[in-house]
Amino acid sequence: MPRTTSITIGEQLDDFVSKLIDSGRYSSTSEVIRSALRLLEQQESKTEALKKAIYAGEQSGESSLTLREIAAKKEARTECINSLILQQKISQASLSTH
């Protein structure tokens, strides 16, 4: 259930919020604050995931691979993923034209 909360922001942030509303990008201060909080929530989630990944990496011990080998594996994986994404887009475009 939504609740009303009072916050105090400095003049600089108040001006920024006003500019966003005046530009038409947002319709209200509440909308700006909700958007900012969603971004903060995403950032916190990514930070937590990164901390967990770092911990898991530290616990896994040393790799037998060199940095070049690791980079090559990552590059190959990225190319594979990009290829799959492209194939999916082509397939979706083909379906939408029929």
In short:
It holds the Pfam family ParD_antitoxin. This protein is mainly α and 98 residues long.
Model description:
The chain is mainly alpha-helical and 98 residues long. It has two domains: 7-61; 65-98. Helices cover 74% and strands 0% of the residues. It has three helices and no strands. It has helices at 11-22, 29-59, 67-96. The radius of gyration is 22 Å and the shape is flat. The protein starts with 10 loop residues before the first helix and ends with a helix. This is Antitoxin ParD. It comes from Pectobacterium parmentieri. One of its GO terms (biological process) is regulation of DNA-templated transcription.
What labels would you give this structure?
98 residues; Ribbon_hlx_hlx; 3 helices; ParD; mainly alpha; flat; ParD_sf
**What number of domains?**
2
How many β-strand runs?
0
Structural class by sheet pairing and helices: mainly alpha
Distance linking N and C termini: 44 Å
Q: Name the poorly predicted regions.
A: none
Number of helical runs?
3
Q: In percent, how helical is the residue content? A: over 70%
Kindly state the mean pLDDT as a whole number?
Answer: 94
Name the helix and strand elements from N-terminus to C-terminus, one letter apiece: HHH
How much of the sequence lies in strands comes to under 5%
Rounded to an integer, what's the Rg over CA atoms? 22 Å
The profile of the biggest β sheet is: none
Gross morphology: flat
